[in-house]
What does this fold into?
Amino acid sequence: MDFSKRPNFFHLIIALESAVLLAFLVLLTPWGSRMTVSRDASDAERGMKTEETDNNADAERSSAAREKDYIHWVDFQVTAEALDRAFWYDVNTCQADIHLNWIELLAYLGARYGGDFSRYRGSDMDDIAGRLQNGEKMEDITTNMKYYPYYLEAYTAVLSGMVGEYQIEIPGSQAPDFVLPKDSGGNPIRTDDNVWVTKYGLKAFSPIAKNYPYSDFDDFGASRSYGFKRQHLGHDMMGQVGTPVIAVESGYVEAMGWNQYGGWRLGIRSFDGRRYYYYAHLRKNYPYHKSLQEGSVVQAGDVIGYLGRTGYSRTENTNNIAEPHLHFGLQLIFDESQKEGNNEIWIDCYELVKFLYNNRSETVRDAATKEHYRAYQMEDPAIPNGAREQKIPDKTENTGEQKMPADSR
It folds into this structure.
């Protein structure tokens, strides 16, 4: 060891001790206190920002989770009888102090039956309707019904937009006196012309035009093998080629063209986005009403196409279906991720179609073009910017030929 360097080592120790002492004395001064508080505040601010960031991240994750908290499956078993009874309770009370909502009535029974309407009894409908008319509130009645909110949302997705107020033409011979023109004495003048009336009731229509026969049965879920083994996710309505096909609900044309399974087909989306109506196997050569293209707005009751037997082929315009029929499907969409793929929700439409038989759109045929049009005009207030009439034009430049749209879904 070189002892000659020992004094320098001790000098270093003494210097360090002096520095520590000086720092301690500084902290005891007001300036030092402010520095300490400032440092602590800075640490706290950083901590608050970190906590705020974490909270924001948690909130975003929670929001994303809530956004994905939508219905993933609906098994619609409501019978035509229950639909009809609930509908008339709604219509008959539309101007009463207590207006019964048909979807709420059905949702209550859905929650009570666990969705199984094989248990349905008309007296159960009468009982809940009576309680509501006696002043009870549905929110109070269903407080302890865990699944009522689910059935209300599910049945609203299926049925919303089918009942409400609208204006429609009716034959003058059927018009009530108060809507008819009056003579100088105030007496109604009978007319052969159509008369506009305002109605509250069923504004959705059967998929098959009035006066055209068809047959059907509940074939939802039946096996299909073309292309691959799968279930039939629609409702087949057997009829004659060329039978006018009707828009069940107002909406816009989302898909139009060839599909190897459905042949010439149309997809119409409701304005609230929840329902996608699928009309398939339309007629060869002239499947669609000439007024339609993708994006077109259609009104409930409009002629949209013609029954046929196209499909089951990759080659466009091929008749490969043995029996002419309309494949009618109804898809529910609670989130756009359900539109296509493994998460699609298609419901059994058999009982719904039986109910819609109560409202069939009458059509007339243009002899020049052989195109069909609705016989009685309608104004559905659900249509943005108002409805456009669908009637035989005075003059037409259309030869009846129809350009086939490109494949799309």
Observations:
- The chain has eight helices and 17 strands.
